[in-house]
Design a protein that fits this description.
Layout (H helix, E strand, L loop, with lengths): L2 E5 L4 H13 L4 E6 L19 E5 L5 H11 L3 E4 L6 H6 L1 H23 L7 E7 L23 H20 L3 E6 L1 E3 L8 H10 L4 E4 L5 E6 H14 L5 E4 L4 E3 H15 L11 E4 L14 H7 L7 H14 L1 H7 L3 H11 L2
Parallel strand pairs: 1-2, 1-4, 2-3, 4-5, 5-6, 6-10, 7-9, 8-12
Antiparallel strand pairs: 9-11
This protein binds nicotinamide-adenine-dinucleotide and 2'deoxy-thymidine-5'-diphospho-alpha-D-glucose (DAU).
């Protein structure tokens, strides 16, 4: 029986993770702490908001006093830490927001957990959800393993790398029972349309340009979000304390080929003439410090804990497109208001 604090549960991955834990483990008490930035959306959790084992608290992970109160009131036995500023482009324009939430916020959570669990660390878990971007950028060959040296290159990835180090320091120094996983690019329902896949789906629907940074030759390793949260479930319950697990899809795509696949599938689904959406592809100025390639070696997770991705990419992307086509209201809500001013600043300067 766990009492779990999930942070960032109203975001993309956090909402899938919260749904999985609330529905699969009705005997666990789940508290979702989220400050509801532009990326946090309680609409993502509508189907589970009335479940008796779920509650939501609006609050900031940098607020140590609030964290102390929540630990005291709820007797948390575990933390699933998802909350973060997560978009690389935003980290280039506003790095300090990333340092504040990702570094200071993570340190505050660790401190609250340490204070609450001191002298009774057994059976507790502090699970830190991290990214493959901490390893830096690969050339055309090779993979990131759990032993790859950290080499983050954006304010986002360096803030995540920094938080990973602080998490490990609490394990070594205070014996806080931590687990870390570093995952590759996720895609799927509820993905905010500032990231490549949902942004392109939204723009194809609306016949707007599809902005490709540089030559579109950068490579990402895409994993369906439900496979990611399944992996987190496995590591949470069966992974070893103090260990790191890489999670990835063995599914590498150059950005340009990925966007062409999206165009192909969407022309079919929208009954548009073949080739219509590809005409929207527009090459724009490259991202500063753009990492060339990410690719995860996830054999430790497969060999030790038996996890593997369940979906082939063509199927996952088809399900994802269908979700966006069937959830126009969600898309309209998240792309009204502030989204427009972000979009204008981000793309009209290029
Ligand atoms: P997201 O931006 O969709 O969601 C982040 C959530 O955190 C939002 O609900 C937001 O309101 C909340 N949040 C932000 N700052 C907060 C604060 N100070 N206090 C409380 N809540 C706050 O992010 P995501 O894509 O779901 O990523 C979740 C986690 O997974 C992040 O730690 C990210 O680094 C990691 N990750 C993401 C990916 C990916 O492809 N999206 C891949 C690997 C790892
Ligand atoms: O690898 C895991 C990471 O994946 C996560 O830690 C991050 O939180 C998540 O945002 C994601 O980072 P990326 O920078 O790889 O994702 P994004 O969707 O922003 O970009 C994917 C690729 O597409 C990247 O090479 C940049 C490119 N791109 C992106 C956008 C938004 C474009 O060419 N045009 C665009 O408009």
């Amino acid at each position: 029986m766990h009492s779990i604090l999930i942070t960032g549960g109203a975001g993309f991955i956090g909402s899938h993770l919260t749904r999985l834990f609330v529905t699969k483990y009705p005997h666990y008490n789940i508290v979702n702490l989220d400050v509801l930035t532009y990326a946090g959306n309680l609409e993502n959790l509508k189907d589970i908001e009335d479940k008796p084992n779920y509650s939501f608290i609006k609050g900031n992970i940098t607020d140590l006093e609030l964290l102390r109160i929540l630990f005291t009131q709820n007797h948390f036995t575990a933390v699933l830490h998802c909350a973060a500023e997560s978009h690389v482009d935003r980290s280039i324009t506003d790095p300090l927001a990333f340092i504040t939430t990702n570094v200071l916020g993570t340190a505050s959570l660790l401190q609250a957990a340490k204070e609450s669990w001191i002298g009774k660390m057994e059976d507790k878990i502090f699970y830190h959800i991290s990214t493959d971007e901490v390893y830096g950028s690969l050339g055309e060959t090779g993979f990131f393993t759990e032993k790859t040296a950290y080499d983050p290159r954006s304010p986002y990835s360096s803030s995540k790398a920094s938080s990973d180090h602080i998490v490990r320091s609490f394990y070594h120094t205070y014996k806080l029972p931590v687990k870390i996983s570093n995952c590759s690019n996720n895609y799927g329902p509820f993905h905010f349309p500032e990231k490549l896949i949902p942004l392109c789906i939204h723009n194809i629907i609306n016949n707007k340009p599809l902005p490709i940074y540089g030559k579109g030759e950068n490579v990402r390793d895409w994993l369906y979000v439900e496979d990611h949260v399944r992996a987190i479930d496995v590591v949470f319950h069966s992974g070893k304390v103090g260990e790191t697990y890489n999670i990835g899809g063995h599914n590498e795509w150059t950005n340009i080929n990925l966007v062409k696949e999206l165009c192909r599938q969407m022309d079919e689904k929208l009954r548009r003439e073949k080739g219509t959406s590809e005409k929207l592809i527009t090459y724009v100025k490259d991202r500063a410090g753009h990492d060339l390639r990410y690719a995860i070696e996830a054999t430790k997770l497969k060999n030790e804990l038996g996890w593997m991705p369940s979906l082939q990419f063509e199927e996952g992307i088809s399900k994802t497109i269908d979700w966006y086509l069937n959830n126009g209201e969600w898309l309209n809500h998240v792309t009204s208001g502030d989204y427009q001013s972000y979009y204008d600043k981000q793309y009209h300067k290029r």
